[in-house]
Amino acid sequence: MTRTLFLAAALLALAPQAADAADPKALYNATCIACHGPKAEGAIPGVPNLAKSGRLSRPDAELVTNIMNGYQSKGSPLAMPAKGGNPNLTPADAKALVEYMRSLTGAKAGGK
Ligand code: HEC
């Protein structure tokens, strides 16, 4: 019984960590950098320069949705793949990645 309680307490203590996003830098380098480049400037033709476009100043919820579901704006030659093609990506990861990309580009969260 005591042992069971101890295990339950240990699991509870671990739970918040499990809900946290993975290290956004490592995720970005593994999943996003091939298309978006080291400074989110765009590494291949068809990927917009997110450092300049102002897109990273849009609301978190909108950017997270577009990362999770994939996204293609009108007239764009290339789509953003859902979850950047990484099936393990969570919404918390996507939010952390938006913040990380802002830190790469100097963009501010403006909700514009
Ligand atoms: C296969 C290439 C590719 C990969 C991999 C990729 N992206 Fe994208 N991403 C794009 C393209 C292309 C667009 C622009 C789509 C458009 O506007 O039609 C885009 C757009 C975006 C945008 C702007 C969305 C908006 O609402 O304007 C964000 C933020 C973004 N990507 C984040 C990420 C993150 C984070 C990852 C890694 C988890 C990632 N991307 C992986 C190609 C990629």
UniProtKB/TrEMBL annotation:
GO-annotated molecular function: electron transfer activity; heme binding; metal ion binding
Signal peptide bounds: 1-21
Keyword DNA damage set for record: no
Pfam family, one: Cytochrome_CBB3
InterPro entries (UniProt xref): Cyt_c-like_dom, Cyt_c-like_dom_sf
Keywords: Heme, Iron, Metal-binding, Signal
Domain Cytochrome c stretches: 19-105
Name by which UniProt lists this protein: Cytochrome c, class I
Native source species: Pseudoxanthomonas taiwanensis
